[in-house]
Structures are given as structure tokens and as C-alpha cells.
Write a structure and sequence with these properties.
By secondary structure, this protein is α/β, with parallel strands linked by helices. The protein has helices at residues 55-68, 84-103, and strands at residues 2-9, 12-13, 18-21, 28-34, 42-49, 71-79. It has one domain (2-103). Helices cover 33% and strands 37% of the residues. The chain is globular and about 35 Å long.
């Protein structure tokens, strides 16, 4: 099991939580919540994955995601062998769920 962390600059505060996906064969879950320090504008990502040796792939997927997403959030990803496409899909779903929660 590998444990990775990444940090990205952010422009706005995230105010709601979101949970999408499940930890299961070939899938993952994403937990998105407001940043620990409300004053700091950065996103902190923790990845726990069952597949070792792919930190460069995780970095590429997250780098691409954070070129479009500017929220200051804490994101936890629990992975059980998901492909990069599934990772991108789940991140987009978590973002959508959090933004829908802001509208409620």
C-alpha cells in the first residue's frame, strides 16, 4: 500500500463536503472537504493506493485536474487499482457534488 500527498495553490474556499465512489476492485472513493485551515488557500490531496510505484501517474492526473479546479480543499482518495480515467471521473463527480451542495 502506498501513501502519497500533493499540494496545489487555490483561489477560493470550499464550503461543503462530498463523497463519491467506493473502494473496490478497479475503483476508488474521493472525499472532498473544506481545507483544514480556512485562511490558507491551498488544496491538500492524500492518496492511499493498493498499487505501488505509480506516483508519477497520480501526479500527472492531479496536475491536470488542478489546472481546472481552484478550490481550497482537503481531498482524500482511497484507491483499489482504478485507472487514470476513473480517477479523473471521480474527482469531477466530487467537485460537482460539492458545488451542488453549495446551491442547496
Amino acid at each position: 500500500m502506498e501513501h502519497l500527498t500533493f499540494d496545489y495553490p487555490a483561489q477560493r474556499a470550499v464550503t461543503t463536503r462530498a463523497h463519491v465512489g467506493v473502494v473496490g476492485s478497479g475503483d476508488l472513493e474521493v472525499l472532498l472537504s473544506p481545507a483544514d485551515d480556512a485562511g490558507a488557500l491551498s488544496a491538500h490531496v492524500v492518496v492511499r493506493t493498493s498499487v505501488d510505484g505509480y506516483s508519477h501517474i497520480w501526479k500527472s492526473v492531479l496536475d491536470r485536474f488542478f489546472t481546472r479546479y481552484d478550490g481550497a480543499a482537503r481531498i482524500e482518495i482511497n484507491d483499489f487499482g482504478a485507472t487514470p480515467g476513473v480517477v479523473a471521473l471521480r474527482l469531477a463527480e466530487a467537485l460537482e457534488a460539492a458545488e451542488e451542495g453549495d446551491d442547496a
